[in-house]
Q: What sequence folds into this?
């Protein structure tokens, strides 16, 4: 072999190796280098802690970084917008978010989606930029609540008739608006003898739910049922039912569960809970966001389900897994 040919072979070998190295450098990042922040409405709430536990477990299973972010209150709209902007500035692979308010988060999510894929969970926003959206069908959940309340009223009074009230936790929240719509439409369609005599709007605080419920009981002596459309209102309304000792004649149904509302369910203060699957929202939200970041095809909308929980079925395996999810992800 000539010296010239040998030199040419060496140069070609080096070039091939350099090209291969370049291709590796341009390839996808290692899983451990992938970051997908999850932004919830309120990191202090038991419900959102379950969402974050699911997201954390997904991060462990997939080998990616999943920062757990969120404001300290569901009413802190500006705080969540700032958290979203800061998260996007960190150039993550994607972002998972549950918007605090439908209108206010629309433009910020549109802007964020120009830089990274956005996957929505639980509550929607005024945006068409979501790569995928995972949530309870909240209208269906409202219908489930109406059916559960009607059954509880019949169990307490012997008939499905009387005055009922609705307590909305916060105005302008897409998921709550849908629940209320499903509830009121189901009442009108199936239970003509149940009359919705009051719809109250709160500020997201349990104390307000307590005060509203106390006022409802005083102003409506023929009240036989109350639907509280989220966990915090369920806590406040349950406390009012207990303090006024009216659980034997006023049925309460609320969305979501924690130790307090489960305690109310066990002792008969609350008639039923409509329980979502927040753990799945967190887990599948991260899993979906990772798939989107890789350019994989995902479903535009995923219904994560709603279940009626009563004292009679709370020990069933499926229900027990929903109301006692594992929270030990570290």
A:
């Amino acid at each position: 072999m000539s010296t010239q040919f040998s030199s040419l072979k060496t140069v070609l070998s080096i070039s091939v190796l350099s090209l291969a190295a370049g291709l590796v450098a341009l390839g996808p990042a290692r899983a451990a280098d992938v970051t997908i922040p999850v932004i919830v409405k309120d990191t202090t709430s038991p419900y959102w802690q379950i969402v974050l536990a699911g997201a954390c477990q997904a991060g462990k299973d997939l080998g990616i970084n999943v920062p757990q972010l969120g404001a300290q209150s569901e009413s802190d709209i500006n705080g969540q917008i700032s958290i979203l902007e800061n998260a996007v500035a960190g150039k993550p692979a994607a972002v998972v978010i549950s918007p605090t308010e439908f209108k206010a988060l629309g433009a910020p999510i549109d802007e964020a989606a120009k830089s990274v894929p956005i996957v929505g969970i639980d509550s929607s926003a005024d945006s068409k930029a979501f790569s995928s959206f995972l949530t309870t069908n909240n209208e269906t959940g409202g219908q489930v609540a109406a059916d559960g309340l009607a059954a509880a009223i019949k169990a307490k009074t012997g008939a499905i008739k009387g005055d009922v009230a609705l307590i909305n936790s916060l105005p302008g929240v897409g998921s709550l608006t849908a629940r209320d719509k499903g509830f009121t439409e189901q009442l009108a369609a199936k239970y003509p003898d149940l009359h919705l005599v009051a719809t109250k709007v709160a500020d997201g605080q349990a104390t307000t739910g307590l005060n509203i419920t106390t006022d409802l009981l005083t102003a409506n002596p023929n009240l036989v049922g109350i639907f509280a459309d989220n966990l915090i209102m369920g806590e406040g309304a349950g406390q009012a039912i207990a303090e006024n000792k009216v659980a034997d004649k006023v049925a309460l149904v609320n969305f979501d569960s924690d130790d307090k509302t489960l305690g109310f369910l066990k002792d008969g203060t609350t008639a039923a809970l409509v329980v979502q699957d927040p753990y799945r929202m967190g887990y599948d939200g991260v899993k979906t966001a990772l798939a989107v970041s890789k350019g994989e095809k995902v479903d535009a909308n995923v219904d994560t389900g709603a279940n009626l929980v009563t004292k009679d079925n709370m020990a069933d395996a499926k229900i027990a897994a929903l109301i006692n999810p594992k929270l030990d992800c570290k």
Q: What stands out?
A: The chain has a mean pLDDT of 91. The chain is about 50% helix and 15% strand.
